[in-house]
User: Which sequence fits this backbone?
């Protein structure tokens, strides 16, 4: 058996693993969704999914008979509706910046005249938020040139624009890889995935980083399928992914997935050239950032931030999300001038104790609960963020999103989310059957996201930046329907 055959089998095993994992996630989200806000009735969800699937199927059949001009017009209408929905949330659902969102926002405000000081929040606790701080500070300075002094609304507008452009890129990818009918169908599906507008008022890394995975996928697609390989694309890709990783560390998952995928589909000499080019640009960009930011760092090298073991420790609490006690524990050690090595050792000790206390069956139950908490929430935690200190009084829409009448919004979000997971599963099934090499990059990336959040502190909002990748795999799945399939 040659190396190519072995690699193809390994890719198939990866896809099979994806299919098994997400079959469980689909079942779990359908019949046992995490009660984030209320208990959900599986019968209502199933009925809603059935209606939605029927609508999508009729749209697929109808779009296959329409001209290119009409399909483009429908897409424009769908994006216009999306823009309107985003604007409604921008206008009516702004919140007072609090939690980390507020720390970054207020930190940027304090650096408007001169960037010469980083508070202990950034240096001692969360240096990962410094890049977003710099971006917001530069944006505020830009807004000030036009006489703008209330920076929150313009920042939300930028956040809205990032989400909107991310979806345009998703649309373009689907059009490139499949056809205009599928791209038009998904321009409609964008309207059903509620985080694309519910997260507009929340200016944080989850949405600011959304554009990086999908653009990276587009760049990789352009390079991978080019007859003459353009090295400039790899240079752009390496720098782009480095910037994305600085904004949110989870972006590195798609970089790892790209390297694995290229290794699985090419000989090792070609892979080394590919990897070395991207890696040199990626690492160089990260190092340049660190050199530039170091003069603003008041702590010795190696002592900035809380050690990564903290988030692994926190992920071992049930259900695996943020925990006040764990946060106070690690931050308390930091405030007591303990070294990062000492904090790391204290975290590891608690990690060992928790694993021992769980035992084998307990650990399995914990991981199941963690999966449920991460993957079965169709709102992607948006309501929990929108309900924090809303700025508008007498909001006519509030009751239907964050108030007593929001069960319709929750069910709508859940139905769309489970339909998306199901479409991803169809994509994996098609990939198992057709053995398309390129689309394996989608399942590899999503498995990487799954494994990372299984290990790390987790929340459903940590999935938001990879939603365009989810949609790309779902779009591949729709190609099984007659009238959509096309050789790729």
Assistant:
């Amino acid at each position: 058996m040659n190396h190519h055959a072995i690699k193809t089998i390994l890719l198939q095993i990866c896809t099979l693993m994806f299919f098994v994992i997400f079959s469980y996630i689909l079942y779990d989200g359908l019949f046992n969704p995490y009660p984030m806000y209320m208990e959900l009735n599986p019968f209502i969800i199933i009925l809603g999914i059935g209606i939605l699937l029927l609508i999508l199927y009729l749209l697929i059949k109808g779009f296959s008979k329409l001209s290119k001009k009409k399909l483009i017009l429908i897409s424009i209408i769908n994006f216009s509706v999306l823009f309107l929905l985003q604007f409604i949330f921008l206008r009516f659902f702004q919140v007072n910046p609090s939690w980390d969102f507020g720390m970054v926002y207020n930190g940027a405000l304090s650096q408007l005249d001169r960037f010469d000081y980083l508070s202990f929040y950034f240096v001692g606790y969360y240096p990962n938020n410094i890049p977003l701080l710099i971006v917001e500070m530069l944006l505020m300075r830009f807004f000030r040139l036009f006489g703008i002094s209330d920076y929150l609304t313009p920042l939300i507008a930028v956040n809205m624009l990032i989400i909107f452009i991310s979806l345009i890129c998703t649309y373009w990818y689907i059009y490139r890889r499949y056809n205009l009918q599928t791209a038009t169908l998904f321009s409609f599906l964008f309207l059903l995935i509620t985080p694309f507008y519910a997260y507009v008022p929340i200016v944080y890394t989850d949405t600011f980083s959304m554009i990086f995975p999908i653009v990276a996928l587009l760049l990789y697609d352009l390079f991978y399928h080019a007859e003459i390989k353009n090295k400039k694309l790899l240079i752009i890709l390496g720098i782009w992914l480095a910037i994305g990783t600085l904004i949110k560390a989870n972006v590195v998952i798609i970089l790892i997935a790209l390297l694995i995928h290229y290794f699985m589909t090419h000989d090792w000499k070609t892979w080394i050239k590919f990897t070395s080019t991207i890696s040199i640009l990626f690492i160089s960009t990260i190092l340049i950032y660190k050199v530039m930011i170091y003069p603003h760092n008041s702590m010795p090298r190696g002592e900035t931030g809380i050690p990564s073991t903290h988030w692994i420790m926190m992920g071992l609490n049930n259900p695996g999300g943020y925990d006040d006690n764990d946060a106070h524990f690690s931050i308390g050690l930091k405030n007591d001038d303990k070294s990062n090595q000492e904090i790391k050792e204290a975290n590891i000790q608690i990690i060992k104790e928790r694993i021992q206390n769980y035992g084998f069956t307990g650990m399995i139950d914990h991981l199941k609960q963690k999966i449920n908490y991460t993957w079965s929430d169709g709102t992607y935690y948006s309501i929990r963020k929108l309900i924090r200190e809303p700025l508008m009084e007498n909001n006519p829409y509030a009751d239907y999103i964050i108030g007593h009448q929001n069960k319709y919004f929750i069910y709508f979000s859940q139905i769309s989310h489970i339909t998306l997971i199901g479409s991803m599963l169809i994509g994996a099934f098609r990939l198992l059957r057709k053995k398309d090499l390129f689309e394996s990059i989608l399942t590899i990336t999503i498995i990487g996201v799954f494994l990372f959040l299984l290990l790390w502190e987790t929340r459903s909002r940590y999935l938001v930046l990879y939603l365009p990748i989810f949609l790309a795999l779902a779009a591949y799945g729709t190609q099984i329907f007659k009238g959509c399939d096309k050789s790729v």
